[in-house]
């Protein structure tokens, strides 16, 4: 940025000072020139115009409300709602979309009268009108072709290092990490820019039964191996606080962001590392968010491309090697990656949404939720798209519009900033444009990131691992701890006009009446308990909170 602005000593300027210089040079075209996470507000006094903008990946945004005689804006819903006169009426359709996971890349918020600046756009405002301008769009047809396989690794490493360095600039950072590839990428790069970096890992609360399955419940051995290979990483393993609030309502998180948070109990589980980062003096922590759509993409959705291009031998080889010769795995992979995507859109109705969604059937039909999902590309045919690049772009855009709500909630709730280097736009666009075979080769998924980490000296225990970590594996024990309070939470929702109209409270009551005996039995109904029940109670509590603050 300093070079583009012709500022020889510009590297000593703060980000705010650089942004101000950028506005002086490029005016309303500034948002398209900025990199990283930003929310921007500029007043052009001579023209009496206000410019609001948010970055292309949705890490920051600006919320605004226009009244009859004034315009108010802030970078968080909580701060905007604290201003006098801003209405708090809940947008029921938006709440329904949230519970149905029908995320859209638009300007809507949980509040009917409050808008947000959509990622990758800016809004130019005058006294009479708003003009929305798009300054960034992903190009699914862009291609990058380098000379050798190693060239892709080298370029990815350069972009990763730049993304991490930029987010460490002017900050004291910690890494919110695990034993996975995303966290390892952050660690090897951060160590190049700082002699010592805290690496904070959430682990299960001792003594509680864990969810069954193949996932890694405690990633301590992987983190210890990483720290042994990279002196200067300072690992700490932090279980949840014994007095943590596991109620699905989670009033503290709700009031911090003035909005519900998806999978709020996961945030409670991860709160120990965040609080420890604050205690260590960190001003921000790094996470691996968006990595699975960029640097650590698994490449499996590239298989339909081999089918379309007639590369039959290579396709058969990848299927065999990826499934390790296991017939059942090979059949499952062939069905989900090759057959199902080409069968066309699957017809579904509102009834298909009920198992994972706490909305009442009447609400789903009243809002035409099945059609709303189809219109936004969130129907089953989207999830099975045979075009890898378009799928990833759609997934990025689908998630980024809700990301600011969650990021702002975390910053307020945890008292510390957060950033995601693997969501750096330069790195994401590179990863979208390179050949698909850089991610899946000879049965090895996530081939690009595995090679990058091997070259950096990361132990094979991590680079060759194909198992996933299990976030919050003792979830049922924590939920059961709160079981005696759940009927009271449900009764509070019955007294809420809006919550009782939107949410199927009778169905939630039936779930409470059929409580599983243990963690093994609970895992069989994980969607109904951890997703449907807890999400509905959390969103209902948010609605009741808004009604109470009104």
TrEMBL record:
<feature type="domain" description="Glutamine amidotransferase type-2">
    <location>
        <begin position="14"/>
        <end position="81"/>
    </location>
</feature>
<feature type="domain" description="Asparagine synthetase">
    <location>
        <begin position="156"/>
        <end position="231"/>
    </location>
</feature>
<comment type="similarity">
    <text>Belongs to the asparagine synthetase family.</text>
</comment>
<dbReference type="GO" id="GO:0005829">
    <property type="term" value="C:cytosol"/>
</dbReference>
<dbReference type="GO" id="GO:0004066">
    <property type="term" value="F:asparagine synthase (glutamine-hydrolyzing) activity"/>
</dbReference>
<feature type="domain" description="Asparagine synthetase">
    <location>
        <begin position="414"/>
        <end position="534"/>
    </location>
</feature>
<dbReference type="InterPro" id="IPR001962">
    <property type="entry name" value="Asn_synthase"/>
</dbReference>
<protein>
    <recommendedName>
        <fullName>asparagine synthase (glutamine-hydrolyzing)</fullName>
        <ecNumber>6.3.5.4</ecNumber>
    </recommendedName>
</protein>
<dbReference type="Pfam" id="PF00733">
    <property type="entry name" value="Asn_synthase"/>
</dbReference>
<dbReference type="InterPro" id="IPR051786">
    <property type="entry name" value="ASN_synthetase/amidase"/>
</dbReference>
<feature type="binding site">
    <location>
        <position position="15"/>
    </location>
    <ligand>
        <name>L-glutamine</name>
    </ligand>
</feature>
<dbReference type="GO" id="GO:0006529">
    <property type="term" value="P:asparagine biosynthetic process"/>
</dbReference>
<dbReference type="InterPro" id="IPR014729">
    <property type="entry name" value="Rossmann-like_a/b/a_fold"/>
</dbReference>
<dbReference type="InterPro" id="IPR029055">
    <property type="entry name" value="Ntn_hydrolases_N"/>
</dbReference>
<comment type="pathway">
    <text>Amino-acid biosynthesis; L-asparagine biosynthesis; L-asparagine from L-aspartate (L-Gln route): step 1/1.</text>
</comment>
<dbReference type="GO" id="GO:0005524">
    <property type="term" value="F:ATP binding"/>
</dbReference>
<dbReference type="InterPro" id="IPR017932">
    <property type="entry name" value="GATase_2_dom"/>
</dbReference>
<keyword id="KW-0547">Nucleotide-binding</keyword>
<dbReference type="InterPro" id="IPR006426">
    <property type="entry name" value="Asn_synth_AEB"/>
</dbReference>
<keyword id="KW-0067">ATP-binding</keyword>
<keyword id="KW-0436">Ligase</keyword>
<dbReference type="Pfam" id="PF13537">
    <property type="entry name" value="GATase_7"/>
</dbReference>
